[in-house]
Amino acid sequence: MSDGAGRPLLEVEALEVVYGGAVHALHGVGLAVRAGEIAALVGANGAGKTTLLRAVSNLLPALRGQVTAGRLAFDGRDVTRTRTDALVRAGLVGVLEGRHCFRALSVRDNLVAGGLGRGSGRGAVRADLERVYGLFPALAAKRDVAAGLLSGGEQQMAAIGRALMGRPRLLVLDEPSMGLAPKVVEAIYRVLTGLNRTEGLTLLVAEQNVRLALRHAHHAVVLENGRSALAGSAAALRARDDVQALYLGGAARAASDRSPDSRVRAPA
Ligand code: ATP
Question: For the ABC transporter domain, which residue ranges apply (predicted)?
């Protein structure tokens, strides 16, 4: 189901974020995510990716973080004035801070929790469960297993599945590839890009792995030390000599996605 394709669903303008009144994590960062597109946020450790995703979900106050300037709007709502649960009900659903699952609960109960968070009724939850099992057959096979016993890849699938149970309009993901084998990463991205293509699901994905991000996203913003260093279409960024040299390990090198060279290095 397309969501007014092309319209800005998320707008971030000149965003400044400070933690604990002292650590200035973002400096004037801007980003627009249009309905129906996959946007990537790439950057090295500490560049500010997680902070931006927390800001987008209005999770900063709980971490003594504060938006001190700029604008953040989801579908026209001022994010800083909207509670996280209201943002979820409006369609902004995140998979942040690792892949939180309720470890003692079964896969099924974890997924059901995602549907209830949105206020879905029983029938809708049942239908959405079957849909998630169809997308991630590995979860269907382990529906009665405690989430804490799943592999890392399966836990990531469960976390994404739980978010999908909330029927997101914008799905926000923090490093879904982190620590996972290339085959598992590909399987997860295949599902995400498939949902984007077939249903117009809008995605904002933070990734350290630039090669991976630029292969799957339509647009990308590169963060360096809390500032937007580069932005543009993934195709244009991939073609740039400086991006090739700095982030992709040179044009001639066909290194795998797990190569350290495809990760963003901290600027000198
Ligand atoms: P990583 O991939 O390591 O998570 P990142 O790009 O997501 O990196 P952030 O985690 O957003 O970067 O960190 C940006 C800056 O904000 C860093 O200097 C970090 O030390 C600081 N920071 C992050 N969280 C907090 C916090 N809760 N309190 C204080 N400072 C923080």
Answer: 10-250
Which atom belonging to ligand 1 lies closest to the Cα atom of 23? 30
The one-letter code for the residue type at 73 is: A
Q: Which domains does the chain have, with CATH numbers?
A: 36-59+83-257 (3.40.50.300)
pLDDT digits (tens, 9 = 90+) for 44-87: 889 999 999 999 999 999 999 999 999 999 999 999 999 998 99
pLDDT in tens, 199-237: 999 999 999 988 999 999 999 999 999 999 999 999 999
Q: Which residue's alpha carbon is nearest to atom 16 within ligand 1? A: 25
Cα three-residue angle 47-50-176, rounded to 5 degrees: 110
Q: Is-contact 95 163, C-beta < 8 A?
A: yes
Task: State the DSSP H helix or E strand holding residue 163, giving kind and residue range, or none if neither.
Answer: helix 152-165
Q: Which residue CA neighbors atom 29 of ligand 1 most closely?
A: 19
